[in-house]
Amino acid sequence: MDRRVAAALAARGIDAVHVLDAGLAGAADVVVFDWAIGQERVIVTRDYPDFSHIARVAQRAGRSFPGVLFVSRALRLGNVGVLTTGIERFARRSEAFARGSVAWVAAEEPSSDSRLR
Fold first, then answer.
1. pTM for the structure as a whole
2. What is the pLDDT of residue 101?
């Protein structure tokens, strides 16, 4: 994810930390996942194959984690405004996001909340 998205979210009052700012540059995905658990942070990623697998393993093991928010690959990385807005909308509704859940930020705003799957 673009580091500018985390900065833009922070400017909007959303507590967001980029992996580089957390000192996790080059860390294995499972290390990032474990860090997020320890920090009580939802992971925001485009890496569906790896993080969906890690989340499934955690769910099957009964391991509690804050959640994973997948960003659609249809959203261009350089479009900081659209990415920030989509993630912010989700974050503002996050009280409905159960621990151990996964959700999606979709490419376009649908007419209902079906974008959170």
1. 0.82
2. 84
